[in-house]
């Protein structure tokens, strides 16, 4: 750690004049690293030494590592698109606690502790269209107003506007965002028009503050990449000669953030037959890739989990969700709770152990919601530290 930034270490607990016990810096550092980011912002006001400690990049890195490794300080971020633009986040543990205590089967609208409203620095308030490009280590990457990209920390409210990858219209066909632990850097990837009006894949690195072109693929059939195991993942939808989707040839394509290489990871489980009815990717228990398949003919959704990463034979059916107008699983927790986004904008919770649904969020109007999960950290969107 930087000299003079952290408190001078004490070798033992020393009583102060009023009898209180003064902890050594290592103990204070460890305790504070478990504190949610929003509370840490207030803790900086306690004294100058705490402000210096909490602002130190080494502490920011330690607190971020704790939050990500143990999924603490986890919040569910919700966007409403277009004219009813609104951003809220709910503390995940508070939400589960609320649902556990509330025994009603149907909850029309949830008001839970630690529900928070957020603001974005929008330059074009009349066109509030937001795409979530990804979330990593407390930073959320957004594509705003079909115009520019923004790195944003919902906890601190700080943001950084990213320049366009080329002078042409910036409308990415597919995109993603994630942290590269090999270089300690954050990267944005998108497919869009280059200066010579050909489709290229661009990668932005926060350390250099610039874009560059990477080779290997020119088209993927899905939009947002899923971050897992240091790579982004997309459904690579293949089409037949007549233009229809060929589900048997559709695969999962990954992009290794460290190597900056594309590869075809695995084929999908044989669920859809000859007709592609809809699929989406997600994360199961923080470490496994899952895929959900919508079957509109039978009114259900099948969720499959890849139990061994990169091994096609390890696909395992997790559950069949019936009689729901489902869109995609937002999150599957360690305790087998499945948050599911519905097409009409609702959010539901399915408990695998109890085998039942709970209504979590039901907007007053038919709105399209976009969801993202993030952990509360103090990571700067300007420096990544």
Automatic annotation (TrEMBL):
Transmembrane segments: none
F-box domain ranges (all copies): 23-63
SUPFAM superfamilies: F-box domain (SSF81383), Galactose oxidase, central domain (SSF50965)
Pfam families the record matches: F-box (PF00646), FBA_1 (PF07734)
NCBIfam families: F_box_assoc_1
The name this protein goes by in its record: F-box domain-containing protein
Native organism: Malus domestica
């Amino acid at each position: 750690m930087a000299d003079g930034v952290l408190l001078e270490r004490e070798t033992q607990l020393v009583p102060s004049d009023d009898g209180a016990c003064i902890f050594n810096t290592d103990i204070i550092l460890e305790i504070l690293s478990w504190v949610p980011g929003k509370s840490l912002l207030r803790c900086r006001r306690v004294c100058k030494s705490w402000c210096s400690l909490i602002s130190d990049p080494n502490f920011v890195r330690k607190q971020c590592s704790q939050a990500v490794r143990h999924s603490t300080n986890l919040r569910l971020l919700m966007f409403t698109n277009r004219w009813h633009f609104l951003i809220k986040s709910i503390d995940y543990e508070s939400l589960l606690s609320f649902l556990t205590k509330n025994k009603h089967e149907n909850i029309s609208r949830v008001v839970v502790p630690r529900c928070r409203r957020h603001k974005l620095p929008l330059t074009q308030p009349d066109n509030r269209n937001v795409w979530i490009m990804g979330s990593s280590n407390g930073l959320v990457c957004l594509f705003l107003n079909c115009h520019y990209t923004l790195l944003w920390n919902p906890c601190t409210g700080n943001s950084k506007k990213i320049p366009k990858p080329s002078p042409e219209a910036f409308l990415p066909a597919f995109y993603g965002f994630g942290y590269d632990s090999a270089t300690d850097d954050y990267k944005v990837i998108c497919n869009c028009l280059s200066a010579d009006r050909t489709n290229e894949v661009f990668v932005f690195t926060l350390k250099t503050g610039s874009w560059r072109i990477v080779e290997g693929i020119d088209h993927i059939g899905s939009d947002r990449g899923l971050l897992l195991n240091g790579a982004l993942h997309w459904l690579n939808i293949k089409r037949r000669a007549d233009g229809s989707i060929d589900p048997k040839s559709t695969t999962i394509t990954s992009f290794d953030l460290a190597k900056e290489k594309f590869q075809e990871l695995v084929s999908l489980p044989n669920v859809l037959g000859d007709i592609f009815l809809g699929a989406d990717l997600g994360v199961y228990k923080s470490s496994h890739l899952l895929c959900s398949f919508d079957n509109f003919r039978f009114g259900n959704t099948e969720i499959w989990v890849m139990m061994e990463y990169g091994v096609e034979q390890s696909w395992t059916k997790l559950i069949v969700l019936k009689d729901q107008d489902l869109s995609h699983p937002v999150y599957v927790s360690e305790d087998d709770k499945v948050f599911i986004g519905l097409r009409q904008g609702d959010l539901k919770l399915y408990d695998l152990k109890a085998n039942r649904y709970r209504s979590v969020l039901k907007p007053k109007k038919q709105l399209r919601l976009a969801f993202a999960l993030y952990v509360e950290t103090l990571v700067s969107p300007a420096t990544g530290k």
